[in-house]
Amino acid sequence: MKNLDVDVLIIGSGPAGYTAAIYASRAGLSTLLYKGDQPGGQLTITSDVENYPGYPNGIMGPEMMIDFEKQAERFGTIIKNGMIKSVDFSTKNLICFSDDGETINAKSIIISTGASAKWLNIDSEQRLNGKGVSACAVCDGFFFKNQDVAVVGGGDTAAEEALYLSKLVNKVYLVIRRDVMRASVIMQNRIKKNDKIEIHWNSEIDEILGENSVEGINMFNNKTKDIKKIKLKGVFVAIGHNPNTEIFKDYLKMDDKGYIVTEPDSTKTNVSGVFATGDAQDKIYRQAVTAAGSGCMGALDAERYISNN
Ligand code: NDP
Questions:
Q1: 169 and 126 in a common domain
Q2: In contact, 149 and 230? CB cutoff 8 Å
């Protein structure tokens, strides 16, 4: 067991975490960042990022996160692989425990733990996860070259996954549970223009078929109650995310979905010295650029807190 004392501990390594790290370490604060179980965050499982300002030709998500990390390192952030497993915010002395046996005493903590993909929670989905069921087209799309696949969801993530897959596979069945898409208009237009994508409105997957690999789906129409069996090889679930905030639930105020509540125009939580940034507290915008912006706010709030306490 080792004890570490730092000014700022940042938990998470997406755009929010690394931006907080750049600002905090550049301000001369000793800054430690734990990467968590998905180093680089959700952008490492995306393809082209076209809407982050400063990249006129777009950039691949994983590449962008390597740049973020290098920039944080340049200003002296200590970056560790590993997870913060539990926290103790019961006294003014904020304590975090890592999975590599370190106890970290921090003057201030910036939470940037992001969010993780949601699943349909049907038995066949769990059984066939990794055997044709995936939540990441960029990671797994390659395995379905020239095959038929389904994408579930009607948001921007589902639209992105469907468009990405359409470049590789034979056909994409886009399974949407309502008669409208939640995705932005530009993405909806791209989907509707794409010959390889077949939209199924008011549709839900009842069962994913197959023993050791995906062989098809039973899809039902929630208006007509018709059930359709479709033969295909892959199912990509893209129905949103849950915030990764479980370890803080005994101490921090959260909403009913687990998003950390912060004060208006601030990253302050209900615990002094603890600040929440990015998707762990933002259920509305959830963009790389807004996460980076809130990471910056978190570092400025932490800096102010440390100099006043
Ligand atoms: P969203 O919450 O926006 O969309 C989730 C979609 O999944 C909705 O169509 C929803 O249906 C559907 N859904 C939810 N639960 C189920 C279920 N159990 N069964 C079937 N369908 C379900 O999540 P996204 O991940 O798509 O996007 C999150 C945020 O990230 C958004 O703000 C989005 O704009 C942003 N984003 C932006 C991108 C970009 O700009 N390039 C790329 C990706 C995401 P319903 O509408 O009925 O609730």
A1: yes
A2: no
- State the pLDDT at residue 113: 98
Which candidate in 7, 140, 156, 282 is catalytic? 140
Q: Say yes or no: CB of residue 154 within 6 Å of ligand 1.
A: yes
Residues 74 and 11 in one domain: yes
CATH of the domain at 215: 3.50.50.60
Residue 65 CA, distance from chain mean position? 13
Closest ligand 1 atom, CA of 180? 46
- Catalytic annotation, pick one of 139, 179, 226, 255: 139
Residues 6+ apart with CB under 8 A from 203: 175, 176, 177, 219, 220, 221, 222
Query: Which segments of the chain does DSSP mark as H helices, in order?
Result: 15-26, 61-74, 123-127, 137-140, 156-166, 185-193, 288-308
Which range among 55-59, 106-110, 133-137, 138-142 shows the weakest confidence by mean pLDDT? 138-142
- Respond yes or no: is residue 139 known to be catalytic: yes
Whether the per-residue pLDDT at 1 is higher than 90: the answer is: no
Residue 47 has pLDDT above 80, yes or no: no
Domain count, the chain: 2
Domain that holds residue 269: 2-116+242-307
The preferred substitution site among 51, 118, 151, 156 for testing ligand 1, maximizing ligand atoms within 8 Å of CB, is 156
C-alpha angle with apex 197: 193 to 203, nearest 5 degrees? 120
Percent of the chain clearing pLDDT 90 (strictly above)? 87
What confidence score (pLDDT) does residue 49 get?
84
Question: Does ligand 1 have an atom closer than 6 angstroms to the CB of 177?
Answer: yes
